[in-house]
Design a protein that fits this description.
The protein is α+β, with helices and mostly antiparallel strands. The chain has helices spanning about 5-15, 20-35, 45-60, 80-95, 295, 310-320, 345-355, and strands at about 70, 115, 120, 125-130, 135-140, 145, 155, 165-170, 175-180, 185-190, 195-200, 205-215, 225-230, 235, 240-245, 255-260, 260-265, 270-275, 275-280, 285-290, 305-310, 325-330, 335-340, 360-365, 370. Helix content is about 25%, strand content about 35%. Strand 6 and strand 7 form a beta hairpin. Helix 2 (about 20-35) crosses helix 4.
Length: about 375
């Protein structure tokens, strides 16, 4: 990172303007640097800084709504204090605390998800893509299916005309995958998701059906609009970048637009989205909100980011990506949190971030996570 970029990032952090992904980047940098160091910070300076921070936080909390989100890591008013807090957390929490529920060495590491998926052909044959080597995988009519060296599934015609048949790409819990459709549209599936699509697009429109969470970069074709269907909702686009979150257990379908324009339709109700807007479809109603669109696609960039997200929804995301079971014991599941953390850490590292709030604790038992007060 260039010096000027680093100064700009720190300035954004100090002035509370940094995005969750930027917060995570900066904090991980300082904590990694602290781990590599050998000098123990002056204890009195840390105590004094912690007292000032505690006092400031209490004043801040007193002026806030009691149901305001709980930040996963408080942003402080000066870079020097931030550094001392990081030192404090590292030396007195990570290094000197003998036992943390979420990082108990008595359990096996629960590693993050990876590129895993199953391709189901029109004849019902399943191809496990995790084990498939790069190169040709199958042929459907006049369309060849291959896996690139970078792991993407590609479709390309081998003759001038082809009858359209349907394939399905499915990711398991703990998996994600990239797909390039026959028209060049890029599709990225999050964990526990699927897409049903034709091997080649014909007719007046391009239509696919999704479940779970899927990101699209649609190739522009004004003569053949692209449509995405999911649980009673249809998204129509010409060429754009957007994210669809349509997991069954959430009962909401969230469509977030990053670039271009889309129309979201359910029955007789339609809403147009502009970049930076998100539609929330639930109970036959479509609401449109202004959002930070980058937060919606943080998952494909290797981050968990949450903005006033309930504990239950956060743990649903964690359970899908790490393929674990989650249970609760006397905990308010609607408790809101905000912040961000890497999706490529061991699950205990992710849970530690949540535990820093002091509001919840975790016990890892095999592939089960117990959430307690």
């Amino acid at each position: 990172m260039k010096k000027q970029e680093a100064k700009k990032l720190i300035s954004s952090y100090v002035n509370k303007k940094a995005k969750p992904s930027e917060q995570t980047l900066l904090e991980r940098f300082f904590l990694d640097d602290l781990k590599a160091g050998t000098t123990v910070p002056d204890e009195q300076r840390i105590i004094e800084a912690n007292e000032r921070i505690k006092s400031n936080l209490l004043k801040h909390i007193a002026g806030q709504n009691p149901m305001k989100k709980i930040s996963l890591w408080p942003r402080v008013a000066a870079a020097a204090i931030f550094l001392l807090v990081s030192v404090s957390l590292y030396w007195f929490v990570v290094k000197n605390e003998p036992v943390r529920n979420a990082n108990n060495t008595n359990h096996a590491k629960i590693l993050p998800g990876s590129n895993k998926a199953v391709l189901t052909l029109a004849n019902g044959k399943n191809i496990v893509l995790t084990d498939a080597k790069a190169g040709d995988l199958a042929q459907q009519g006049d369309v060849a299916i291959s896996k690139s060296k970078s792991g993407e599934i590609l479709y390309h015609k081998v003759s001038g005309s082809s009858a359209s048949v349907y394939n399905t790409l499915t990711t398991p819990r703990g998996g994600m995958y990239r797909l390039v459709l026959s028209d060049g549209t890029l599709v990225i599936l999050n964990a526990a998701s699927s897409i049903l699509y034709p091997t080649v697009f014909t007719g007046k429109e391009r239509c696919v059906t999704v479940r779970g969470e899927v990101y699209f970069e649609v190739k522009h074709n004004a003569a053949m609009p692209f449509k995405v269907k999911s649980s009673g909702q249809t998204i129509e686009v010409l060429g754009t970048h957007f994210n669809v979150n349509a997991y069954d257990e959430v009962n909401h379908i969230k469509t977030t637009l990053l670039q271009g324009a889309v129309r979201v339709t359910s029955g007789s109700v339609s809403k147009y989205l502009a970049p930076g807007e998100q539609s929330d479809f639930s109970h036959n109603e479509i609401k449109v909100l202004k959002v930070d669109a980058e937060d919606a696609i943080a998952w494909k960039n290797g981050l968990f980011t949450f903005e006033d997200e309930s504990l239950e929804n956060i743990m649903l995301n964690i359970s899908r990506w790490y393929d674990v079971e989650v249970s609760y014991q006397d905990v308010d599941r609607s408790m809101p949190f905000g912040g961000g953390v890497s999706r490529f850490e061991d699950v205990s590292k992710v849970l530690e971030k949540l535990e820093l709030t002091g509001k919840i604790h975790f016990k890892i038992q095999g592939r089960r996570i117990l959430v307690t007060k």
